[in-house]
Structures are given as C-alpha cells and as structure tokens.
Input
Amino acid sequence: MKSGSSPGRFGNPEATNGLLMVSPTAIYATLLLAAPLVAVVVYSLMVDSKVGLSSGLTFANYIEVWTGRIYQAIMMRSLTVASLVTAITVLLAYPVAYFVSFHVRPERKSLWLFLITIPFWTSYLIRVFLWKVILGYNGVINSGLLSLGIIDEPLTVINYSVGSMVATLAHAYAPFAILPIFVSLEKIDRSFLEAGQDLGESKLMTFWRVTLPLSMPGVIAAVLIVFIPTIGDYVTPDLIGGGKIPMIANMIEGKMLKQNDKAVGAAIAVTAMLIVSVVSIVFLLLNKRFLRGQK
Amino acid sequence: MNKSPSLRAYAIAYLIFLYAPIALLPLFAFNDSKVIAFPLQGFTTNWFAEMWADQQLFNAFGNSLTIAVSASILSTTLGIFAARASTRYTFPGKAGILGLIMLPMVLPEMIVSMALLVVLMAIGVPLSLFTIILGHVLICTPFAVAILTSAFQSLDRSLEEAAYDLGETPASTFRLIILPLVMPGIISSLLICFTISLDEFIISYFLGGNQTVLSVYIFGQFRFPAKVPAVMALGFVLVCLSICLLTIAEYFRRRGIARSGGKDTGGFL
Output
C-alpha cells in the first residue's frame, strides 16, 4: 500500500497524498479486520483436535457444517427469523418514511427523524430485555391481561418462541429501515408525481408506478441494513429464546469457545459470511435492475 | 402537500410502538415491587438506592468510560484521515480501501469479535480493556467516517486555496481553516462513537477477558430475577443519559450544517 508513494509509479502528488492520508485508517483496518478474517478462513480449512490445529488443508469442516442436520436447522432458523424480521420491519417502516417525506412540513422533518432515531441509541441490551419483561410468563402482557380479567391463566404462546424473537428484533431494528427509505423518497423529484397525475393516473397508480419504483434503492438498502445484523444477532436468541432457540451467532460461540473447536466454528462463521454476501449480492443486483428500468 | 389523517395516525401509532417498551423503564424503576408485573404497587426510589450502592456497577461503569473515551477519540482520529482522503483526493484502490474501512458496518459483530479473538489468542495478547478498545475502534470508525465525510464534503475548497495563497502551510491551513469548519462534525462523531462504544456488548463480552464493562454487567444481572428492578432503574438512568448526549450531538450537527450554509437533510446515518 505504501509503495504508492514512490514517485516513479504514481507521478501525480494527489494519489500519493491521498494514500498517505488514508494510510493510518487503512493500516488499522488491514491489521485488525482483513488479517483476522483471513485467519478465520485459514482456520476453517484446518482440523482442530486435542493436540492442536493440523497443518494440512481440508474441506472436512465445510462438509460437516453444510450437511449436518443440526447446523442446517439452525441456519434455516436464522434465515427464517432474519427474513421475517426484515419483511415486517420494511413493510411497517415504509408508510412512516413516506409520511415524513411527503406529509411533514420541511422544518419539522428533522424533529421526526430525531424522534425515530432516539430509541435506536438507547441500550440495545435493555431494549431486548424489556421485550422479555413484556412477553414473559409473568410478564407485562400476561399480568396486565390477568389483572384486567381478560384471561384466566398466563398465555404461553408469547414467551420463548420464534415469534417473540421476531417481534423483539423487528422493534430493535425499526429505525434502521426508516432512514434509507426516507432518504430515497426525499430524492424523488416532486414534479414527476404531478406529471403522473396530470396524465390522468389516480393517486394510487402514481404511487405504484412512480413513487414506489423510484424509492426502491432505499427499500433495498433498508432490507440489507436490517437483514445483516439480524441474522448475526446473539443477544435476542439468548435472552428471548432462553438459550433454547439458538441462531448462527450462538452456534459460532458454542463451537469456538464452549466446545473449543475453532476449525468448525470458523467454518460456520465463513458460511454465515457467505450467506450474508449471497443475500446482499442478490439484492444489489435487484437494485441495479430497478435503476436500469428507470432510464 | 395535502393532509392524510390515516397516514398521520399510523405514523404516530408507530412512534408509540417504538417508545412503548422504553416507557416501561420509569414505570417499573419506581414501582415498589420485586416482580415486574401489573398492577403497579406504589412509588419507591429503593431500586435507585440499590443500584447506587453496587460497587461492581461503578467499576464496570468506570471501565466502560475508559473504553468509550479512548475508542471515540481514536476512531474519530482515524475517521478524520479517511474522510479527508476520500473527499479531497483521488488515489488508486480508493473504493477498495474505503470499502475495507466501512466493512464492519455490514459484518455481523459476532464474526468481527470471533475473528479478532482468534488472532489475539494465536499471537498471545492477553484479553483486557485494551483489546476491547481495539475492537470498538474497528466498529466505531465506519460511523466516524460517515459523519465526517459529510462534514468534509460541505467544505468550500476555495477557502483552503485562499489560505495557501496567503502563505499558510498545509499544516497551518488544516489547523486554522479546515479544523474549525469541521469541528461540529468532529464533536458529533465523538459523541456518536462514545454512545456506540458504551452500548456495545458482543465485543466487550468476548474480548474483555475477566474485565467487566457496563453492558456485560447488565447482561450478567439479567440472570438474577431479584436484580431486575435495579436493572430497570439503571436502564432509566442510561436512557436519560443517552438522550442528553444525542441532543447535544444533534445540536452540533445542525450548527455545522448552518455554518457551512448547507440544507438540513436530517438524521445521523
């Protein structure tokens, strides 16, 4: 990276200065992010036994992870939970972003956005825990309904289930979905909408054929911003699922630390990264198609 | 724009949904009962007293402060370098380098912390507050870069050139012209990184060794049902604290936009 400063190869001082300027941050990211990620990939190709890591490279860990029934089940669960959370969050968030962008006076918009972002900056752990308090067997909902006389005994369907995990995560990542959709709605030229209506389209059709397609990049950004942290979430399965409904992150921890099998743990981590990358690429390609369709 | 009452009602209902769980914090923090359940049992401040008397909590909070202050200063510094480079220069491999720097934003935290843990253990670095700081700088830097890039972008290049023409060196130009203009961005980046670091759990949990920070302490308390009311009290204090910090950050962000003559587009992200 630093070789860029030799004047022979990069004649212009701009490139040299730019590289010099970015180098502290780039070196930090290389040493503490790129190198560890490479190490994880290398670990995933070795075999972890009691005597230590073997030197030969093998795909055995991947075969174990990709064909093992437990691994498959946990990965499917993570995918299901993350997809459900993403769908719910984005669908619920769109009207709010639309409202703030189209129906709130410009000087009030930042206040609305500020109100939407505050809950996101309050302790994540406590927000997740609050949902345990709300949905628990003796929780707020059950005790509230009992004291009002609506139910006779606590509801059990709402605690320790995939459904309550989805509710918790959908609440935790709600602001993430609103912001990118809002930004893309703000960028839409309002005269397009007037043009649509002048040409005889109804309001609903204008929304369907003009606003929605133009805001698609924001929707796709929202999908990725919600999906990626959700699929790797550790706290919610542990607290809300009571440790009985693990997801990928819990499985990585279990393998790496509790069972001390770093090779298989690393293979799961790499697999998780692959899943995230595949989903990201699919959605980015979709985004590209939408952008091309507009032109 | 015409008014749309149903959309407005929905948006307000959504805000209520966002805030409802947090509204439970003061409700149960002052509730005179060991059990978190309705009906409420009357007013007490005992839980705050219990929280206040817990020495472990203060140790954990002290550790968290050390980490959050170090991580926010370091990541904002690294953010300044990257944001300045990305807004002012073009250089080979720019997209790739910046992509790597921003990567932690789209990588599950569990993977970041496990990757770091594997390497730290392999080269024999003992886990401590220092290793937590290393991890936090990594995940805070992308946020710092994002905030600072918008601050640097609104800079007028001609101001800088005027300073050169008047005989200032690059270093003194940076100190006298650029730094004051991006200062609101720097402050808001410091505050955001501070908040992220204070709240972060996964990295603190796995890279801390036997050192406990605030989030790890809170997580530990969840295991004891008797401690829950005191955790509610602590949560209430933390929520108030982070609302204060965010209000200050928002104030500086808006002042920065007003100072450079830009238009407010709202939001940190």
In short: Chain B has one domain: 55-259. Confidence is low (pLDDT under 50) at residues 265-269 of chain B.
